[in-house]
Amino acid sequence: MSGGLLAAVRGLPPESTQQAVGYPSLFLLVSLGALVPVVPTGAIVSSAAVVAFHQSSPFSLLYVFLVASAAAFLGDLALYWLGQRGVRSRNGSRWLGALRSRVTPDRLAHAQERLDSHQVSVLVLSRLVPAGRIPVMLACLLARMPLRRFARGDAAACLAWAATYQLIGILGGSLFPEPWQGVVAAVGLTLLVSAVPAAWRRLRGGGRDALRHEDA
Description:
Blueprint: H1 2-10, H2 15-35, H3 41-53, H4 60-88, H5 94-101, H6 105-118, H7 122-128, H8 133-142, H9 147-175, H10 179-215
Helix pairs in contact: 2-3, 2-4, 3-4, 3-9, 3-10, 4-5, 4-8, 4-9, 6-8, 7-8, 7-9, 9-10
């Protein structure tokens, strides 16, 4: 399977085809990933940045940045709007339920504390920290933050997020002469960055459980 992926990436189509297909695909995948938080959107943006880095057009990287940040922003707004409907409804909604199911009580409480202390600025950090977006968004929903106020903070968050993962892609593209090599490196680095917070939480959770066991 990995061999087929490498062969597909090696055989990249001409630049005109890449741009005609790539930008709409990037927008669709990133906006879908914002709505359904299982799509690795960071890896998608990094891969697109690698391909753009190797193109001759001086505006390719700018287009990737604009498309990725706009798609993330619109996806976030759509998810927040759907979550607001659940907060207002007496019976909730499946979107709000899906957000709750992805956040543990401890992480929600921590997100609510940060929101109380830092207000909208916490949205920027939540986008940059892997798996940090949903707890903060849920905290904003439960605090009944207006959509307009959420949008102001999320706009800066999406710009910072797109720039960060694009830089990872540029780094991967600059280290290797072939685009497919840069794509593999960027995806690997993005997945590694995404895995670190989860591993850290498991280690902290295991340490707390051990302390509780000793105290008992």
